[in-house]
Amino acid sequence: MQKNLKMYGTATRGTVILAHGAGAGMDSAFMVYFAEGIAKAGFKCCLFDFPYMAKRMEDGKKRPPDRAPKLAEVYKEVITDCHAGGPLYIGGKSMGGRIASMILAEDPQLADGLILLGYPFAPPGKPENIRVEHFPALMKPTLIVQGERDVFGGKVFVESLSLPDHFRLKWVPDGDHGFKPRKASGYTETENWDAALACVTDYALGISDSYDSQ
Question: Exposed/middle/buried for 196, CB within 10 Å: 0-12, 13-18, 19+?
Fold first, then answer.
């Protein structure tokens, strides 16, 4: 098992693996919140740091993410380390979710479902660089939880795209890339995180129920 990996809960209903975004690791408040909430719903939730982030945590020096092929290789190693049977869901925050979607598009047998939290549809200010070319190859149930104001893909922009019919898209009210709303919106960050977590657990439990009935 990799040293830069943490597990929450037990796999009563299945296993969920979530990868972090480009700028914050597995110990960020966002990642820990979702891991703990998913664990309370009856799943084993695994978090991990990609090697570049693990090195950053060790020496405090900022490093850019490794190239996508290396990140994908690490993610597949984590699946081997974490999954011991039963339904498996992979995904993550922003970049981490994108890498999970790429490896599942390449190999649909890797997991039973995909969870994307704040998917980076396009770099801020560059809507022409859309990162959805692999979406048609994603055959497994896919949940995208997205902030309405996400600079990597807000509501107006994403709803102009043609996503596969089996994708489930849930909007976080007035949420930014981390689901945080503006004070004037009347929503709070805690409320938005709670709503996003409820979407994730409902989605995973639904697939788990189907898996058990097979």
Answer: buried
